[in-house]
Amino acid sequence: MNTLVNVSNCKNCGHQIEQFNFCPKCGAKKITKRITFKNLISEFSDRFLNLDNSLLKTFIHLFTKPEEVIDGYVHGLRKRYINAFGYFAISLTVTSIYTFLTKSKMKELMVSTAMNEEQIQMQQSIFDTTAQYQSIINFILIPLLAIISRIVFWNYKKYNLTEHFVIYLYSYSHIVTCVAVLMLPFVLLSDNFLLVSVIQFSIYIIYIAYVLKRIYNLSFQSIILKTLLFFGIGGIGYFIFSIIIVIILLLTGQLDLEMFKPKQ
Questions:
Q1: Is 46 a domain residue?
Q2: How many angstroms separate the CA atoms of 40 and 88, rounded?
Q3: Which domain holds residue 74?
Q4: Which of these, 101, 124, 146, 184, could form a disulfide with 165 (CB 3.0-4.6 Å)?
């Protein structure tokens, strides 16, 4: 029953709001009616389906004008778009669901590429570890991308290292979320791990290059050169990161050093 509820203080901050519809201290809306299913549907529609909604606007504009979203946040615009860490948190939620749904299939595809029992064991260990610590890996990956990006654009003073961090909080979060949603049916139906990996990686690279081209207003030739340089530095970083992962697996007993020794 949608009966009125007497409200004299804000439920969020405790400020006196008897004569207000919104709290003058924290801005929370004054709720005076019991919650109903209709209220829930209406609130969901207002928050997530409204064209004026900041989440939907952020999602669309990161495709159409990413420089506006990123520059806006860097220069203090906080209301029009979802903040960078909030968008990253949404991305972690979506990718965690994607990993849960595709874990068995991806593991099966990955193991199918192994040549022998030792490789199967190693790939299973690597996959299980990366899946288990995916959120932590993504969180570590953002600053690594920011550092590489700052090195690549060392002669551009538009963004400092922290602002490069913001660039990837938005752009990396956006593209991994989109790929997770779009690739889900393809991954579940695919029987080729290499093809899945190449498609995903290619989409990541193309989108990140597109974002950097927009925010730096680069020519096509410049972004190609910057992308190749990014690959070079990133390749070194990936090699080091892979060694660290293997060392962690060895130390935790998930990999056996014997499998790296040649057979007699």
A1: no
A2: 25
A3: 54-260
A4: 146
Q: Which of 230, 235, 214, 238 is nearest to 149 (CA)?
A: 230
In the chain, the amino acid numbered 258 is E
Domain count across the chain:
1
Asked if residue 211 belongs to a domain, the reply is: yes
In a domain, 34, yes or no: no
Q: How many CB atoms lie within 10 A of CB 58?
A: 23
How does pLDDT run across 166-220, given as a tens digit for each residue? 999 999 999 999 999 999 888 888 888 788 888 988 999 999 999 999 999 999 9
CA angle (86 as vertex; 83, 91 as ends), nearest 5: 125
Distances (CA, A) of 242 to 128, 135, 236, 238, 239: 14, 17, 10, 6, 5
The residue type of 202 is S
Which residues are bridge partners to 4 per DSSP? 33
**Which residues have C-beta within 8 Å of that of residue 64, sequence separation ≥ 6?**
none
Burial of 177 (0-12, 13-18, 19+ CB in 10 A): buried
Identify whether the C-beta of residue 2 lies closer than 8 Å to the C-beta of residue 33: yes
Residue 168: what residue type? Y
139-154: per-residue pLDDT in tens? 888 998 999 999 999 9
Contacts 24+ apart (CB under 8 A), 59-66: 59/174, 62/170, 62/171, 62/174, 62/211, 65/214, 66/170, 66/171, 66/174, 66/210, 66/211, 66/214, 66/215
Cβ 245 vs Cβ 129: under 8 Å:
yes
pTM of this structure: 0.73
